[in-house]
Amino acid sequence: MLELLLAAQQRFGFKISVDILARHPQRLLSKAPHLASQPGLRLITADILKPLPLAADYSHIIHAAAETNVALDNPTATQVFQSAVEGTRQVLNCASQQQATRFLLLSSGAIYGPAADRLFALSESDSWCATHDASIRSAYIAGKRAAEFICTATAQEQGFTSLIARCFTVCGPYMPLRSGFALGNFIADVLDNKPIAIQGDGTAMRSYMYGSDMAVWLWTLLITGKNNQTINLGSDRMISIENLAKKVALIAHHNTDYPIFVAKTPLKNSHPEIYVPNIELAAQSLNLHCWIGLDQAIADSFAWARLNK
After folding, report:
1. CATH classification number, 2-175+208-238+282-292, choose in 3.40.50.720, 3.30.470.20, 3.40.50.300, 1.10.418.70
2. What is the rounded distance in angstroms from the CA atom of residue 144 to the CA atom of residue 142?
3. Does the pLDDT at position 279 exceed 90?
4. 241-253 helix and 182-191 helix, angle to the nearest 10 degrees
5. What is d(CA 230, CA 145) in angstroms, rounded to the nearest whole number?
6. I need a surface site. Which of 144, 199, 249, 290 has the fewest CB within 10 A?
7. pLDDT tens digits, residue range 66-78?
C-alpha cells in the first residue's frame, strides 16, 4: 500500500502525510529502507494493546495490525484473540479522539470458518461457521469476527465511516517464505533446490491475488467505499495446491519434471477444501477486478524472492 501511495504521489504531485505505527519499526527500515526514508512518512513505535501516542489530526485510519502465526512463532490463542479485539478497540478510540472521517479494517476470509468440505466460493452474505476449540486458528477467527462488530458499532455511535476488507490469500513482494502459506514455501523450495513439499494431499483449492491488486482494492475501498461496506478481497480464480506446485516448478524452474512430494493421499469420496472468495460485490460496487494473472503473479513473486534471498 505504501509503494502504491508513493508512486501516486510522484505521478500526480499531491501530498499525503502518513504515520505508520509498529511495535518494531526497524523491521520496515530493514525490509524497505527506500519507503522509510520518504518525506511524508513517519514511523512511530507503538503497541496497539496500549494507548496510542498520537497527536496529529487524522482524516483516514487503516487498521491492519493483528497477532498471527504467519512467522510460525506460535503465539497463544489468548494473545491472538486479545490482539484482534483489544487492539481494534484501541485504534477505534484513536479514530474517535482524532475525529477521523473514514476507518478501514483489514479483516480476513478466515471469519467464514473452516474450509473443510466447502463446495463454493465465499460471499459476504454467507453464514459464519461455529468454532469449538481453543486453537490459535479459532482464536484468530473469533477475534476477527469480534473486531468487525466493534468496528461497525463504534463507527455508528461516533459518526464516522467504517469499511471492512475480508482479505484472502495475497502474494508478491514482501511475501513471507517458510511460513504457513503454500506458495511462499513452494518458492522457497525451488530457491533452495529442494523438492517442492506439499504438507496435505494437494487437493485443497486456493486462489492468489497479487500485491499490487490488493493495494488498489484497499485504497479504493478506503477512499470511495460506502459506509458500513464490507467486501471480500482476493482472486476468484481457484487452483488446487498440487497444480499450484506444478505451476511454480514450471514458471520458476522451467521444468515439468521438477520433484514434488505430496505428504498425504486424498481420502475416497471426500471433497476438497475451498478457500476462495466470491468477489462479485467488489466488482459491481467498486469496479474492482484482478488485473494480474496467476502466472505473472508467481513469476514476479519468484523474481523478487530470488533477488532478496
Report:
1. 3.40.50.720
2. 6
3. yes
4. 30
5. 12
6. 199
7. 776 555 467 788 8
